[in-house]
Amino acid sequence: MIGNINYFSNSNSEFDLSVCINNYGLTFNSLNTSIDINTSNTTADSKLLYFFYRYNLNKFHLLPKFGIGSVNYRYIDLLSSFYPETNILTCFGYGIDTQYSLLSWLSISGGFNVLSVKNNIFKGFSFGIQIGRLRNKA
Hints:
Layout: E1 4-7, E2 9-21, E3 24-37, E4 40-53, E5 55-57, E6 60-77, E7 85-101, E8 106-117, E9 120-131
Parallel strand pairs: 1-9
Antiparallel strand pairs: 2-3, 3-4, 4-6, 5-6, 6-7, 7-8, 8-9
């Protein structure tokens, strides 16, 4: 049974740090997000380690990924209390990222990500600029 399905909203900040060898790679991902659900405010601070494989299609790259990590899940009910309930839970994530190389060190990236925490599923889109060295496997 799937519980609640929510979309990331309000404020998001995301940080990725990746290493890739022969198109196999690891990504450390840190995501801070805020979700409004009726009369409550929920914040999630997650840290995940993703495993991915990069498919090279000329200047276009496709990266399916899956990961595991933890999330600091903070729930504040605005009607009953100002004291938050905080839980640290194991979470699973998966998604697909795309990259389009503009220069050898600059690319536009975007993707669709899903976080599964207990009986909640959070979905979101990401878009940004990636700075770093992108090379095709020789």
